[in-house]
UniProtKB/TrEMBL annotation:
Gene3D superfamilies: alpha/beta hydrolase. One of its GO terms (molecular function) is hydrolase activity. Keywords: Hydrolase. The keyword Hydrolase applies. SUPFAM superfamilies: alpha/beta-Hydrolases. PANTHER family: AB HYDROLASE SUPERFAMILY PROTEIN YCLE, MONOACYLGLYCEROL LIPASE. This is Alpha/beta hydrolase. The keyword Hydrolase applies. It comes from Kribbella pittospori. Residues 44-275 form the AB hydrolase-1 domain.
């Protein structure tokens, strides 16, 4: 089945970056960072989610955003082309996540970038602002973002994640693959196009099962950060998201006084793919308003 809102271009093939960086993040972990677009424009930093990669932002890197803004995306520790320590402590310490994002911003010399945080990226932004404050942030776009993870109830985390993520963290390859395939099947409201689906399967399988498991082994609550934010926050969320439930976005809107919603009807956990045109337009508007 073809997806309901996609462009004609081969979106799974990401555009060639203008610059590639090796950034040393928290604890000296090597982070793979890439840059596209207009180096003179407002900086936008894209932070991907659990078991993903910078490649998930392929559409944004070859669309209208690249004409106007300086676009930066990186692979989180343990993901993609970044270093992948296998010990759980490398993923449980919030300071390491904060240091990762700070290192990207500092070493690239980014001036108050817009932080685009998808899914698990919401935790990373919370870690960063708790540790470093918001003075170096222009605005935040929370995209299907999680801001709390409280085992064993996992409030506001949906069955699409809870029924698949544990198996994806097991060492048995067949079990791992089956779990990731199920997970991808419920990430979007309509099936991904074949090129997008195969790219997503590939970037998931690059992440070691030890990393997948460690990521969901810590308890997180970002309310303290959300409650004191003064920068603009755009809350982008699909009404049909079964990975991070719409109730998570509603919680953000209740706690964060600067947050405003952008609800996507008939869209799941990947609005930047499911409705790329609207997503890019609203992100451009958010970035343009940063003073």
């Amino acid at each position: 089945m073809e997806h309901m809102v996609v462009s004609d271009r081969a979106s799974a093939v990401i555009a060639e970056p203008t610059t590639t960086y090796d950034v040393r993040g928290g604890g000296g972990v090597s982070l793979h960072v890439r840059e596209w677009g207009n180096r003179q424009g407002r900086s936008v930093v894209f932070i991907h989610g659990w078991s993903a990669s910078h490649v998930c932002w392929a559409r944004q890197m070859q669309g209208r955003l690249a004409d106007e803004f300086r676009l930066v995306a990186f692979d989180n520790r343990g993901h993609g082309m970044s270093e992948k320590p296998l010990d759980a402590d490398s993923y449980r310490d919030p300071q390491l996540w904060a240091d990762d994002l700070a290192a990207v911003i500092d070493q690239l010399g980014l001036d108050r970038p817009v932080l685009v945080a998808w899914s698990y990226g919401g935790f990373i932004v919370s870690d960063y602002i708790r540790a470093y404050g918001e003075d170096r942030t222009g605005a935040i776009n929370l995209v299907g973002a999680a801001v709390m993870m409280k085992p064993p109830t996992f409030d506001n985390i949906g069955p699409g994640f809870l029924e698949n993520a544990p198996d994806a963290g097991l060492p048995d390859l067949a079990t791992n693959i089956a779990a990731v395939r199920r997970f991808l099947g419920v990430c979007t409201a309509e099936p991904l196009e074949p090129d997008d689906w195969s790219a997503a399967l590939a970037w998931n399988m690059v992440v070691p099962p030890e990393v997948k498991g460690a990521l969901i082994s810590r308890q997180i609550d970002g309310d303290d950060v959300l409650a004191r934010l003064s920068v603009p926050v755009l809350v982008t969320h699909g009404r049909s998201d079964t990975i991070v439930l719409p109730s998570m976005a509603e919680h953000v809107l209740d706690v964060c006084k600067t947050a405003r919603p952008s609800w996507y009807d008939g869209v799941g956990h990947m609005p930047f793919i499911e409705d790329e045109t609207r997503f890019d337009r609203e992100l451009a508007e958010l970035a343009a308003d940063v003073v």
